[in-house]
Amino acid sequence: MSLKKIKKILMLLNGAKPSRKLFEKSTYNSQLLVGVDGGTNWLVRNNFKVDLILGDLDSVTNETLKKSKNFQIIKLKNQNLTDFDKSVRFLINKYEVGEIEVWGATGKRIDHFLANLSILKKLTKKVKITFCDDYSESILIFEDSILKGKIGQQISLIPICNAKEVTLKGFKFETTKMDLVFGQRVSSSNQFAKTKAKVSLKKGCLFVSKIRLGKE
C-alpha cells in the first residue's frame, strides 16, 4: 500500500521557542503540524491547531493534555531513542514526506542541540530536514548543492565531518577544492555574492546555516 504524500511537515521540539509571528508564517505552507513532547505546551498555549502529538509525553503538562482532547496523541515508548529521533522515524514510516521543518532543535541546553545535530546527520539522507529558529535556517549537505539567498546575506558552512575538496562559487569568499576540517578550517560568516551559489564537495558533509536578514 502506498503511503500518503505530505510535502512538508512542521515540527516543534522542546528547545528554544520561536517568535510566534515567524512560526505562524511557516504553518501557511506546511500540511501537518506536529508537537513533539514538551514542544506541544507552547503550541497549545499559543492556540495553534496541532495535528499530531508525539513523544514519550513526559514533558507535556496536564493542562496541555486537557486542551488536546481533540488532537491525535501517539506515545512513542522506545527509550533508546530521543523524542526527536523516534518522531521523525514514525513520520517517515507513516507518510511519504518531502521535508520536515524542525523548530526548537536549537537553544537552551547545548548537549541537546548536539544530540539533535547527531540525529540530523543520521536521518537527513532518509528525508530532508531543516533546523529553523529566529536567527537561521540550517541543513546538512553531503553532495553538490545549489543554495539560494539574497546578495550580502550571511551563511556559514561548518564541516561536522571532514569535507574533502570543497568548492564554493557565488559566495564572497570562494574556495577551489579546499578541505574543510572541524577544528582547523571552516567557512564561517561567509556571504552570498549571487542569489544562487554552488557548493561542491567530494566527500564528507557540511552543516550549512543561512542567517536570517537582520540577525547578523
Topology record:
Layout lengths: L3 E9 L7 H8 L4 E5 L2 H7 L6 E4 L6 H6 L4 E4 L7 H12 E9 L6 H14 L4 E5 L3 E6 L3 E4 L5 E16 L5 E6 L6 E5 L4 E5 L2 E9 L5
Parallel strand pairs: 1-2, 1-5, 2-3, 3-4, 5-6
Antiparallel strand pairs: 6-7, 7-13, 8-12, 9-10, 9-11, 9-12, 9-13
Give me the CATH architecture of the largest domain, please.
Answer: 3-Layer(aba) Sandwich
Q: Estimate the global geometry from the Cα principal axes.
A: elongated
Beta-strand percentage range: 35-45%
Kindly provide the name of the CATH class of the largest domain.
Alpha Beta
- C-alpha Rg, in Å? 18 Å
Write down the CATH topology of the largest domain: Rossmann fold
Mean pLDDT: 94
Number of strands: 13
Q: Which features does this protein show?
A:
216 residues; alpha/beta; Rossmann fold; 13-stranded mixed beta sheet; 13 strands; 22% helix; elongated
